[in-house]
Amino acid sequence: MTTIIRSVCPYDCPDTCGLLVHVEKDRAVRVTGDPDHPYAQGTLCPKMNDYEQTVHSPRRLLKPLIRSGEKGSGTFREATWDEALKLIALRWRKIIATHGAEAILPYSYAGTMGLIQRNAGHPFFHYLGASRLDRTICAPAKDAGLKAVLGDTPAPDPDEVLGSDLIILWGINAAATSIHFLHRSNRARKKGARVWLIDTYATHTAPAADEVFLIRPGSDGALALGLMHVLERDGLADLQFLRERTQGCERFSREVLTACTPQWTAELTGLPAETVVRLAHEYAAAKAPFIRLGSGLSRYGNGSMTVRTIAALPAFVGAYGKRHAGLLGSTSTAGAFAMNEVLREDFMKQPTRVVNMNRLGHALNDLSDPPVMSLYVYHSNPAAITPDQNAVLRGLAREDLFTVVHERFMTDTARWADVLLPATSSLEHPDIYRAYGTYCIQRAKGAIPPVGESRSNWEVFAALAEELEFHEPFFRRSAEELIDRLLQRASPLREGIDTTGLEEGKGVLLNVPPWPPARFVTPSGKIEILNESEKEPLPRYIAPHEENGKYPLRLMTAPNPFALNASFYERDDLRRKQGVMQLKVNPEEADRRGLAHGDRVIAFNCQGEVTFILETTEAVPPGTAVAEGVWWLEFAPGSRSVNALTSQRLTDRGNGSTFYDNRIDIRRE
């Protein structure tokens, strides 16, 4: 007999799709989309179709393991949970006695997006007194850039795009990272809307656009400035909106835009000057232009400033004052839950050291007073996904580093563990989710029992709290009780919503903020093109990192529709669809180096060297190289994967990663 249970996609994707889990004899036999989900409406991406193959993969870790061979060898012996927990507690007590609790560093990010399981370690490590992790690997520069202009103004509902007549997919490969927004873009296109794609290469999203504009990596801000220059120069700007609803526009025009001519823009972006002029005129002529802004363009040294300039652009045509127009970076759902009920920063006896996750290589090798003596990794794979892979692996190889990994599979990081704990999948534990690309929330129960002896994040931290004799009652609550506490705290976003549907496990819409906003949630109540609280009061162009021109190709570490960063590589079917670990370049770049499609090549820079299989394609412009996905080393053609080429440098604001701001060259292996 088959039972169908509602659940949620747990991965780091803006859509947070509803699932229907078909269960037979405590086993998920099929996973499909929930047609009643308000946003996903029954469709899933290629990764989540057949999610049961991930849940019941033969690669699942089923028992606690303790290292029995050399570090990094992946050689372990089986252990009981009691033995593993006691060993962790013993080693941590010794580290705390010798170095203090700040010598222990947690490492996690968004392997699961559920509000309980994702954040389960925060209260534990706060209580322990461990170092804190600055979790900024994704898009904090984007958030900082939007906030500098729009403050806390709620973003539009993505469904606003359905009434747009010009949709600009700017720096977003929606076919890989936001398929349900792409569905809406396609619907609007069928009704007559034009769709532009602005990106650094012709991504999987390109076929869904009427026109594709390829610009040099890191030059997005220059394009936005050039468009605003033309709008003002040619009398196309909405002067009334700028006077009444913005702050600092005149100073911005005088001090910044005057120099941002079409020719200046062309030299920086690679677009012809006449194309810049045409884009500005057609943008101004649109009745409801809608920009969907991706995150990749914020992962440069100039990332935050780039986003600030793009965020100012819709103001010049009054788009922030119109239905179906404006800009969507991510939706504003953070206020739906009082997360202090879970995070419990009040457990810290005093503020502890903060370590930026993008600089893990530095932290493991160079931090002192105290050094990092223990690393606890959960729902993350830093040996693969963290910048400067060589430094990270060098740190993980330290004999004096005690590493605990809580994981579902034998990932690159798991192989370096001293203690390896089996983790549940999202179908095996309860949680509650909020989206960042929609205004939906959803509560999920466990659909099946834990596979093997796996335990959830919350269960492990509760067990460790008991082993370490934490006397705080908080750690004796269940995950369901924590979810209930979140729901007991009122929020305007949840007032009057379908609580019955939420308890039944359905996707439920929050109260969607009205669009356009009557007032912008900024100190001035206006769009703050001029923001005196910023170190740089006005948006301007900042160049990306140049590395003195030593390496000629800009590296794009891009998403693939069949993977999500380093997730899903346990799936044979999805790896087959990706093919092999490729580096995509324009045929001109291959010819210049005497290389051919299919060659084994080495990409190199000052960070390291990585072996790829070369793909030559006109989809990538000259001067750019593209590596899609973050492959596990087990399946890589060489001994390293793409992040051996990325730097620990941070963004201009937000302390974010600069994954896209690296240069390389290539040679035959």
Secondary structural class? alpha/beta
The largest sheet has its strands arranged as: 5-4-17-16-15-6
- Name the assembly state: single chain
The overall average pLDDT, rounded, is 97
Major sheet summary line? 6 strands, mixed
Uncertain ranges:
none
Which word captures the global form? globular
Helix content: 25-40%
Beta percentage is: 15-25%
Radius of gyration: 25 Å
Would you give an account of this structure?
By secondary structure, this protein is of the alpha/beta class. It contains 21 helices and 27 strands. The strands form seven sheets. A six-stranded mixed beta sheet has the order 5-4-17-16-15-6, with helices on one face. A six-stranded mixed barrel has the order 22-26-23-25-24-27. α4 packs parallel to α12 (303-312), α7 (220-233) packs parallel to α12 and α10 (262-269) crosses α11. It is globular. The termini are far apart.
Sum up the structure in keywords.
669 residues, alpha/beta, single chain, globular, 27 strands
Summarize the helices and strands and which ones pair or pack.
Blueprint: E1 3-8, E2 18-24, E3 27-33, H1 52-55, E4 65-67, E5 76-78, H2 81-99, E6 104-107, H3 121-128, E7 132-134, H4 140-150, E8 166-170, H5 174-177, H6 179-190, E9 194-199, E10 211-214, H7 220-233, H8 239-245, E11 246-247, H9 249-255, H10 262-269, H11 273-285, E12 289-293, H12 303-312, E13 326-328, H13 340-343, E14 354-356, H14 360-366, E15 374-378, H15 382-385, H16 389-396, E16 402-407, E17 419-422, E18 431-434, E19 440-444, H17 457-467, H18 479-488, H19 499-503, E20 508-509, E21 527-528, E22 553-558, H20 572-578, E23 582-585, H21 587-592, E24 600-604, E25 609-616, E26 624-628, E27 662-668
Parallel strand pairs: 6-15, 7-14, 8-9, 8-12, 9-10, 11-21, 12-13, 15-16, 16-17, 22-26, 23-25
Antiparallel strand pairs: 1-2, 2-3, 4-5, 4-17, 18-19, 19-20, 22-27, 23-26, 24-25, 24-27
Helix pairs in contact: 4-12, 7-10, 7-11, 7-12, 10-11, 14-16
